[in-house]
Amino acid sequence: xxxxxxxxxxxxxxEVTVQVNGNDDEQLLAAAKRKVAEKIQNDxxxxxxxxxxxxxxxxxxxxxxxxxxIPSLNQHGVIYGINKTTYSVISSQGRYNWKLVALTDGxxxxxxxxxxxxxxxxxxxxWIEGNVGFLRYKDDYVPVILGREKNGKTPAYxxxxxxxxxxxxxxxxxxxxxxxxxSPE
Length: 185
Prior knowledge:
single chain; five-stranded antiparallel beta sheet; 3 helices
């Protein structure tokens, strides 16, 4: 039995503005916290809510290359970009932008990921954002997902790792592969 079975994450998002006096940021923040607690106790503000099966990811645990589970779709996917308020995720059902409260830890093998995120899937000869491939790095082939190209370089994020490699178009063509090349024997 999973340790998270039966657990649901409930996220309430609301905006509260209070007026306070103080001389520095510490005093202002302390006074604001007290006023917010009072206001919530007396007059709970309007809010947006999200209920997600399992334990949602924290900002620290959500990064490009992270394999995630999307409970509302019952699908696994991988984050390939982070926007101001959403995370770009590719899954077998397509590409989506999700708020963090909609994502939990996920598990996928590289083979499963390649079924829906390889460039062959889209019959495309060019590498594009959200494609998964193998980056030749030193003497190894590292599974990566591509982010959005910016200033002539495309970020390649290691799957379930913290490494990021910024690649030019020439480096993409030379060092990125759809599969790990088999050496002739």
